[in-house]
Design brief:
Blueprint lengths: L13 H9 L8 E3 L8 E5 L2 E10 L6 H15 L3 E12 L5 H18 L2 E10 L6 E11 L14 E5 L4 H10 L1 H8 L1 H8 L10 H10 L2 E5 L5 H13 L2 E5 L7 H9 L14 E4 L4 H10 L4 E8 L5 E5 L2 E4 L13
Parallel strand pairs: 4-5, 9-12
Antiparallel strand pairs: 1-2, 2-3, 3-6, 4-6, 7-10, 7-11, 8-10, 9-11, 12-13
Helix pairs in contact: 2-3, 2-7, 4-6, 5-6, 7-10
Length: 338
């Protein structure tokens, strides 16, 4: 019997996923945004407002997994212009490795993160599951947005400028410093490793604050938080859903010094490292100063890294004055190490 090629760890193959989602029929006119590559959440008409619904699992790490789950789901709501409100959590715990301490810790972290963002935990499911070697959580979050403030990435257009907040590989480096703590401490010292581990909080993986600030500052055409596959995959997803090309400048893309050191150490391309904490904001060039100024007033580092172009121009990055194809990653770079 012929064995078909199997997929590697990470997001499903984009071509296959696009084919499957393309076959899904919207049978309810109240579904304003349905399943689509490049859109972070679904949008449902609820009268005077839109309800935003998303789901995201945590599979890369078990460290503060409850806190992680709340934040990454809240990011998806915020990138659509919405305020995250309600959370349901599915918690799958490993057989023979679960005790009351672990369960209490996960619930504590969920509640703490939810309180910080004004989110209510209103339901879910918890079980001990055969075959797991660590906890796996999946969040299901709802939020709401005024109809005139909804942000959909399909609204982006050629000529729009792209703003990047904070920098790239923030989450990936925090994960790496946690998983390779002893190895990295021996080489770079405690202070370096602790600083990178704290990337979760400073500059932080939440983009809720900056997304809501930007959406009040101007007419936002698109927002997207690059996660698995890093900034390169985030730009690809954005271009796919908006039917555009991309032109970015490597020198404009911030990568923290510690991230550069660790990516060099493990021969990782920072453009392909899971990047929660960064936010892509796409706007008309006339609105760039209003958004940049408002973010700066709130101590959020940001810069214009490029623009959207015509689809026929493809996805390009300028490196040392030379135009190259934007690198694409079938799986996140971090999976080569952890």
């Amino acid at each position: 019997m012929k064995i078909m090629n199997t997929f590697r760890v990470g997001k499903l193959n984009t071509n296959l996923l696009g084919e499957l989602l393309g076959a899904v029929k919207n049978k309810d006119p109240r579904v304003i945004v349905g399943p689509k590559i490049g859109e972070d959440a679904a949008v449902i008409d609820f009268g005077d407002k839109y309800l935003i619904a998303t789901t995201d699992p945590i599979t890369f790490t078990s460290y503060k997994i409850g806190w992680y789950m709340v934040n990454v789901n809240a990011n998806d709501i915020a990138t659509m212009g919405g305020v995250p409100k309600w959370l349901l959590a599915s918690i799958f715990l490993p057989e023979n490795k679960t005790d009351s301490r672990l369960v209490r810790e996960i619930f504590h972290d969920i509640e703490k993160a939810a309180d910080e963002l004004g989110i209510v935990l209103c339901g879910g499911h918890t079980e001990v599951t055969r075959g797991l070697d660590r906890p796996v959580l999946s969040g299901h979050m709802l939020g709401e947005v005024d109809k005139d403030k909804l942000v959909t990435n399909s609204n982006a257009r050629a000529g729009d400028v792209i703003i990047l907040t904070k920098g790239i590989a923030i989450e990936g480096m925090a994960l790496l410093a946690r998983e390779k703590e002893n190895e990295l401490t021996d080489k770079f010292g405690n202070l370096f490793v602790e600083r990178v581990q704290n990337f979760l909080h400073d500059p932080g993986i939440s983009v809720v604050k900056e997304a809501l600030i930007a959406n009040q500052a101007a007419d936002i055409h698109a927002m997207h938080d690059p996660t698995e596959g890093g900034l390169a995959t985030g730009l690809f997803e954005l271009a796919s859903v908006s039917n555009t090309g991309v032109l970015v400048y490597e020198e404009k893309i911030k990568c923290l010094d510690e991230a550069r050191v660790l990516c060099s150490e493990y021969k990782l391309d920072p453009m392909g490292v899971i990047a929660s904490g960064a936010l892509l904001i796409v706007i008309n060039p006339d609105d760039r100063e209003a958004v940049l100024s408002k973010l700066a007033q709130n101590s959020i580092e940001c810069s214009v890294i490029g623009k959207l172009t015509d689809k026929e121009d493809g996805l390009k990055i300028i490196i040392d004055g030379e135009s190259r194809d934007l690198p694409l990653f079938e799986v996140d770079e971090i999976t080569r190490v952890i």
